[in-house]
Amino acid sequence: MAKAKIIGTGLYAPGTPIPNEELWKLIGVEFDQEKLESKIGIYARHMAKLRGLDETTTDFATKAAEQAIANAGIDPMEVRLFIVGTDTPGYISPGSAVMVQGRIQGKELPTACMDINCSCAGFTTALDVAAKMVATDDTYKYAVVVGVYNMPAFIKPGDAFGHAIFADGAGAVVLERTEDSDISGYIGGHLKSDGTQWDFIGVYSGGTKRPITHEILDSGEYGLQNLKPLPGNRNVQLWPPIANDLMKKFGMEIKDIDHIIFTQINKSVIEQVMAILGLPMEKTTMIMDKYGYTGSGCVPMAFHQAVIDGKVKKGDKVVFIASGAGFFVGSNVFTY
Questions:
Q1: Which residue, 170, 185, 250, 275, has most beta carbons within 10 Å?
Q2: CATH number of the structural domain 2-179
Q3: Cα dihedral sign for 181, 183, 186, 187?
Q4: Quick one: which of 334, 263, 332 has its CA closest to 124?
Q5: What is the pLDDT of residues 152-201, one digit of tens each?
Q6: Overall fold of domain 185-335
Q7: What element of type H or E holds 129?
Q8: Domain boundaries, the chain
């Protein structure tokens, strides 16, 4: 039986890093820097708009995909599936994935393209979809899956919290169809959601429910909005059961995990979850110190970093767990 395996990774973040000290000068407001660094773990981030760069979601996604394709050593014209996971697309329509395909392949081809919007679980959900498509259809020899974030484009002036936390970035992987005898390959995913929690944080204007009007702009009810406070311990309570459910689903145990990567939203939360799972910190990778919080981009970005640092090796059992507003949860397990 065929399956999909990861053969290349890529990462892109626009411009030079913006450390905390420079951020306050650029936006003219302050945040609790001690908490931001010691608890959340953010020391710097990349933001295209604050660097005056004319780059947005599609640019980030394309550059991460190109790096992953180059890293995989394949002909980009042989890719037959592009999936982009994001809740910050360049346009409501057309989607980001088809624009990435156009930039990379440059013409009409029998290539499938789709966007997946599961907020910050977009990449993990997209990876599950792509791996299953590759495994069940032999026309998909190669697939590219991108997680990308451009939330800073939706942050209003004066929003200290938004500027401190959210950042731009994209990560990508290349999947190859391979046979079951291959040691590497996607094992499976476990998804979860609760749509009753849609009204906590998000971008609520600009769609069909609330098209952008002068009245909405004048009222300030646009861009990123925090409608309700998120429970501070939500991910501490959420992630360990997800990890256990994922392992149980595929006949594995937590001790079988060689490396696990979480949504890069809070360093102290990841430390608590690792302790609950009984795993040493050496078995995870955190990148929020350099990249801030990059939503659907953070898991593939952290995975790329883990691979190039040698923390993930061929044959390792790797787990991804991501959660986001809505809320959505996506988890994956595979052998690298």
A1: 170
A2: 3.40.47.10
A3: positive
A4: 332
A5: 999 999 899 999 999 999 999 999 999 989 999 999 999 999 999 999 99
A6: Peroxisomal Thiolase; Chain A, domain 1 (3.40.47)
A7: helix 122-136
A8: 2-179, 185-335
